[in-house]
Design a protein that fits this description.
By secondary structure, the protein is mainly alpha-helical. Helix content is 78%, strand content 3%. It has helices at 3-13, 15-37, 50-53, 55-75, 80-112, 124-127, 135-158, 163-179, 183-198, 202-226; strands spanning 46-48, 120-122. Strands 1-2 form a two-stranded parallel sheet. Helix 7 (135-158) packs parallel to helix 10 (202-226). The chain is globular and about 55 Å long.
Length: 229
């Protein structure tokens, strides 16, 4: 089984994420309909774009694939390198499709949501300020960000249950606990998030996300190579 076959199998095995995404949209649409019927529309209110809802697909997949699919794939005598290449295909496709869907929401669907003329629909393009660079650049920024996040979540899930997984968890908690209360250290965390998400400079954000993705992917390969079946 090659990397493409691994990716195809993973797409089929994460159907739960698709179901939850569609269920959330369905519930939100029902809420809009009920509000309209009872004349309690969210005029001038706040609503999340369905683009944000689609994040559930890639985030849940990044948990389900290493947690549930890894052992099953290894039982099919899949090479570990093909496995890691396959998951990259998964996250590239997910990031691309979700970015397209988010762009569609930004240009068309968000405007149709019943929040009134003074209402706000929070779309990732606007929340993170990526729309300031134009639609194409916003799409690319969104794509590389999602891809990076998916690889991070996938790798963190992969290493759970190992000594280095526990060490990583402790380090993450320690960083949050130590850096957050201290102003100077908190600025370091803020600067990291600014670089990876909020910076007005699209080139810096894109290159930073790609750089982190490469490092995390290499760590993922190392973790998978050491992971017991």
């Amino acid at each position: 089984m090659n990397a493409l076959a691994v990716a195809k199998l993973n797409f089929k095995k994460v159907k739960l994420s698709y179901f939850i995404f569609l269920a959330l949209i369905g519930l939100q649409l029902i809420s809009y309909i009920v509000n309209n019927l009872f004349n309690t529309s969210n005029e001038g209110g706040f609503s999340l774009s369905f683009g944000f809802y689609s994040y559930i697909i890639i985030l849940m997949s990044a948990i389900l694939i290493p947690a549930r699919n890894f052992r099953k794939l290894m039982n099919f005598n899949v090479k570990k390198l093909d496995y890691t290449r396959g998951v990259v295909i998964n996250y590239v496709v997910f990031s691309f499709v979700i970015s397209l869907f988010t762009a569609f929401c930004y240009f068309y669907l968000d405007r149709a949501l019943p929040v009134g003329t003074n209402g706000v629909v929070a779309n990732p393009f606007t929340v993170f300020g990526w729309n300031n660079n134009g639609a194409i650049v916003a799409f690319i920024r969104h794509f590389v960000f999602l891809f990076m996040v998916a690889l991070i979540v996938h790798t963190l899930t992969t290493i759970q249950g190992t000594w280095y997984g526990w060490l990583t968890n402790i380090m993450i908690v320690a960083v949050i606990s130590v850096f957050t209360p201290i102003a100077s250290l908190r600025k370091v965390l803020v600067s990291v998030f600014d670089t990876l998400i909020f910076t007005p400079n699209a080139v810096i954000q894109i290159l930073s996300c790609l750089g982190v993705s490469v490092v995390v992917y290499l760590l993922c390969i190392l973790a998978v190579s050491r992971k017991r079946i």
